[in-house]
Amino acid sequence: MTDRLAVTVLVDNRAAPPLVAEHGLALLLEWRAESFLFDTGAGGALLPNLAQMRITPETVSRVVLSHGHNDHTGGLCHLTPEEIWFAPGIAVSRCSRHPGQLLRDLSLPEDGRRVLRQARRHEVRDFTEIRPGLFLTGPIPRHSGEDCGGPFFLDPDGIQPDRIADEQALLSADGALVQGCCHAGIINTLNYCRARKPEITVRTIIGGLHLRHAAPGRLAQTAAAIRRYGIETLVLLHCTGDDSARHLRQALPEVAILTPEAGAVFPSEGRS
After folding, report:
1. CA distance linking residue 133 with residue 3, whole number of Å
2. Distances in Å between the alpha carbon of 81 and those of 57, 120, 187?
3. Helix 186-196 to helix 216-228 angle, to the nearest 10 degrees?
4. What is the chain's mean pLDDT, rounded?
5. Which of 17, 102, 155, 251 is most exposed, with minimal Cβ within 10 Å?
6. Which phi and psi angles does 113 have, rounded to 5°?
7. Helix crossing, 216-228 with 242-251: angle to 10°?
8. What is the pLDDT of residue 148?
């Protein structure tokens, strides 16, 4: 048993062969005597990557979903979990309308919805301890003014914006903060975690920060908050963006910034 959160990157935009890459995210989290799958990828990479790591899908019994986009929920159909944690709104219909591009359906796929209905469901409406020392934020209040938007909508006509209010993060007692896409904004997320669990000092941030198209002002705002919170390690994945990762490296030379591929295994750098 360990009191440090161990993380294995199962699915990411990059992968070390023979693992498979795809636009998606799935992390295996090991905390004390239990393991949790945090997100499931888009659906094509999860099974081959589990097989390469000698993990059978039947042993994945606990799943945490950060939000309902199908690059995080598409692999759910390959699993038969006993328990699933998610925030309200995970199954709403949603799409993206990028200028000059075709409409893309981003909803939780129907075969994943069937798995969701069959498992023991935990709808996380508030900051919740799911295991001793392991917390889910539930929906995150948004007060920072971060530009967390995007061409996301609840209708195909692009009239109803989708704020992706179901986005949640996971916090461990040793100071690791795990993100899916961070649509709520990393500053909002850090502020909320400090307000709800002030005794936990976040040292490590792991996951996608949704900075790929961030303007210079947003990147500067993010870097300033990371410095202000004393973050020691950033493990940047999925939707963070290579240019944004380079910017953060230049702006935060005191922070260890990692951009691992699927297959990477590492402990968090936090301390309880």
Report:
1. 9
2. 9, 8, 32
3. 20
4. 95
5. 102
6. -65, -35
7. 50
8. 83
Neighbouring CB atoms inside 10 A of 91's CB total 17
268 within 8 A of 40, measured Cβ to Cβ: no
Instruction: Quote the distance between the C-alpha of residue 119 and its chain's center.
Output: 21
Q: Which residues in 130-159 are b (16+ Cβ under 10 Å) and which e?
A: beebbbbbbbbebebebebebbbbbeeeee
pLDDT digits (tens, 9 = 90+) for 75-107: 999 999 999 999 999 999 999 998 888 999 999
CA 258/CA 142 separation, integer angstroms: 27
**CA atoms of 228 and 210, how far apart (whole Å):** 20
What's the confidence (pLDDT) of residue 2?
57
Residue with tokens 């997100």: 39
pLDDT of residue 183: 96
Asked whether the beta carbons of 137 and 169 are under 8 A apart, the reply is yes
pLDDT tens digit sequence for 194-220: 999 999 999 999 999 999 989 999 999
Q: Write out the two tokens for 24.
A: 């998606």
- Cβ-based burial of 99 (10 A; exposed 0-12, middle 13-18, buried ≥19): exposed
| Number of neighbouring beta carbons within 10 Å of residue 250 | 10
Could you identify the residue written with the tokens 């997320």? 189
pLDDT of residue 98: 85
Residue 198's contacts (CB-CB under 8 Å, 6 or more residues apart) are none
Write phi, then psi, for 261 (nearest 5 degrees).
-100, 165
Does the pLDDT of residue 271 top 80, yes or no?
no
Measure the CA–CA gap between 153 and 170, rounded to whole angstroms: 25
pLDDT for 88 equals: 98
How many C-alpha atoms does 227 have within 13 Å on its Cβ side? 13
The DSSP secondary-structure symbol of 260 reads P
